[in-house]
Amino acid sequence: MSVRHLLAAAMLGDFGLATPSAAHVLVQPAAASSYTLTAGRLWSLVAALLGLVGVVIGGLALARSAGRIGIGTGRRGAVVALAAGLAGAVIGSLVVAAADGGPGTGGGIVGGFVAVVVGLIAMALGGLGLARSRRTG
């Protein structure tokens, strides 16, 4: 019995028929399908989003430090991009280190690698924006 059926049975109050099936599902080993959001996939998604936010803010900070957008120097944005990129890269590397299997097993290893790469790009953009803001300011 699938999780959807169990949730539907719980919502409708049909616990009498769902109890043996629920016990059977709980005894089976957990296999992550391609649609299941496991803890590893969730953490790699969080890390990749942190890195992506860092890339966007780092790009804006780099453009501001060059005087293309806005009036400010972009120094604060560069520091935020460095911090977000570092957090994304560290969380992504922890996900990769903790992953039990390869791609498709639910450990989040692919997302972890993506998060590390995106986090490093965010750190590079933040570093360039910080260096430019120091030079111009």
Write out key terms for the chains shown:
single chain, 137 residues, mainly alpha, 2 domains, 74% helix, elongated, DUF6223
3D structure, described in words:
It comes from Micromonospora purpureochromogenes. It is a single chain. The chain has helices at residues 3-12, 15-27, 39-65, 75-98, 109-136. It is mostly helical and 137 residues long. The chain folds into two domains: 1-30, no CATH class; 34-136. The longest helix is centred in the C-terminal third of the chain and has 28 residues, at 109-136. The radius of gyration is 22 Å and the shape is elongated. Residues 14-19 and 22-29 have low confidence and may be disordered.
Helices and strands in order:
Blueprint: H1 3-12, H2 15-27, H3 39-65, H4 75-98, H5 109-136
Helix pairs in contact: 1-2, 3-4, 3-5, 4-5
Brief rundown of the structure:
The chain is 74% helix and 0% strand. With 137 residues, the chain is mostly helical.
**Overall form:** elongated
Into which percentage range does the β-strand content fall? under 5%
H/E series? HHHHH
Tally of contiguous helical segments = 5
Low-confidence runs? 14-19, 22-29
Counting DSSP E segments of at least 2 residues, the number of strands comes to: 0
Rounded average pLDDT: 76
**Structural class assignment:** mainly alpha
Q: What is the domain tally?
A: 2
Mind summarizing the main beta sheet? none
Keywords: Membrane, Transmembrane, Transmembrane helix
Protein name: Major facilitator superfamily (MFS) profile domain-containing protein
Transmembrane segments: 42-66, 78-97, 109-131
Pfam families: DUF6223 (PF19733)
